[in-house]
Amino acid sequence: xxxxxxxxxxxxxxGPSKPVDNSAYYETLGVPKTASAADIKKxxxxxxxxxxxxxxxxxxxxxxxxxxxxxxGGNLIFEKKIxxxxxLTGFETIVEHLDGRHLHVKxxxxxxIKPNQFKAIQGEGMPQHGNPYVKGQLVILFKVEFPTQLTxxxxxALKSLFPPPARLTRVTDAEEAYLTDFDAEAAKQQASQEAYxxxxxxxHRGGPGGVQCQQQ
Length: 216
Prior knowledge:
This protein is an alpha+beta fold. Among the domains are: about 55 residues, Helix Hairpins (Orthogonal Bundle), CATH 1.10.287; about 80 residues, HSP40/DNAj peptide-binding domain. The chain is built from seven helices and seven strands; from the N terminus they run ααααβαββββββαα. A three-stranded mixed β-sheet has the order 1-7-4. A two-stranded antiparallel ribbon has the order 2-3. A two-stranded antiparallel sheet has the order 5-6. The longest helix has 21 residues. It comes from Aphanomyces invadans. InterPro entries: DnaJ_domain, DNJA1/2-like, HSP40/DnaJ_pept-bd, J_dom_sf.
C-alpha cells in the first residue's frame, strides 16, 4: 500500500516534537545575545544580501540566515520531519511548547506539504518584549523524507494515482543516458585540481605568468 513505499508510520513521530535551541541563531547572524533589534536587522540584511541564491549564494545558508532572523522577530521555529505519505495525505503531531504545554497540530485536509515549506500557528510564538500578551508565530519547517527507491509494482501503482506525465517527443538518433548521483564536493576538488594542473602546464611552457628559459 501507500505506506510501504511512501514511508508512513506513526503520525506523531514517536513522541512530542520540541522546538530547537535558539542560542545558535545569534551565532548564525554573527551578533551577541545582547544585540539590539536594530543590530540584528542590520546583520541580517548584510548577510542576506551577501548570501542570496540569486547572487550565487548558498541556498541552505540563506535559509538558515532567514530562519535565524525570523526567530529573533518573536517567531518560534522548529524543524519537523514527515514521510512522503504524510506530506501528500495529511499528518498530525504533538508539539511540546517551551512553556510546557502540548499542542495537537494537524495539517489542513487535502493540502500537500512541500519539502522545506514553512507553516505557522498564530499566537504561539515568543511573547513580545514589554507586552507578554502579544506573541509571535510558531513556525514549522517541514523536511519531507522521500523513499530511496521503488519496485516496479510500486511505481506502476503510483502512476495510476496521478495524471500521466507529458508525452515525450522522441528523436530517432537520440542516445540513452542514465542518471547517477552527483558528488558536488568531489566535482569541486576535481575542478580545483584541473585549474592547478592547467596553471602548472602554462608555467612550464612559458605561458602567461610562467617563466621562460632563455637560450644560451
